[in-house]
What does this fold into?
Amino acid sequence: MSDQKNSDPIQMHPDEDSVFRIHTAAMREMEEPRDGISPTPVSYIITCFLYLLCGGFYMGYYGGTWKGDGLAERPIGGPAVVAPPQDPMKLGREIFNSCMQCHQESGLGVPGSYPPLAGSEYVLGDKRRLAAILMNGINGDFVVKGQTYNSKMPSWAMLEDEEIAAVATYVRNTWGNRADTMPIDLVKSVRKEVDGKGEWKSATLAEFAATAPPAAAVPPPGAPKK
Ligand code: HEC
It folds into this structure.
């Protein structure tokens, strides 16, 4: 600091001089760096706090469950999420659109050409036989409610098991028909049973209906479900 003495513009009496000069010098200078830890500026603390707050909010909001499988569609190793089964009557009504041109919306068919589904013994009777009809179709003389039909019923094997079961359930419970639901499992097992048997004739269908289903195909009533 001694070299500043000569350049100091303030001229004082030498007695006053030293105290004043020391103070002006001290005021002019920046604060001297000190040893040890200086206190953290408050503005810095506040900034950090705000960043943490924003970050915490973001992670809390978007972080999911904070588990490794938080974004997995189902818990890893947990049970598979199965699509809820469709209401068979609703699905069956949709599928029935394909049957209407022949069996009619009324379910009464067309006399002499297409047999009725309303009150039909084939619709309301043996479910296994009904599934077999839908799977392979019918060709030739066929008697329904005492009337003979001689036309062709197409196969519906291209439908899913669930769809065949649904349309069967639908025709069993419409136009005053009342019968229990067609199980999808039964359609599945009948599909295997009738594979390769071709279109039914009255006789072959009766023969099929008379044979006992494979033991595993239809569990007896009350058997524990797999
Ligand atoms: C192209 C016309 C046609 C279509 C479409 C059709 N069927 Fe048939 N269906 C027939 C005919 C014809 C018979 C009788 C068989 C014969 O004459 O050889 C029959 C017979 C049946 C029978 C057994 C006899 C009875 O009346 O109960 C059932 C059950 C049946 N159809 C259900 C269905 C269902 C369900 C659908 C739609 C998924 C369907 N059919 C679509 C023409 C059709």
Observations:
- The mean pLDDT is 86.
- Residues 137 and 155 are 4 Å apart (CA to CA).
- Residues 95, 98-99, 101-103, 114-117, 120, 122-123, 130, 133-134, 138-140, 142, 144, 149-154, 156, 167, 171 surround heme C (CB under 6 Å).
- The two ends are 98 Å apart (CA to CA).
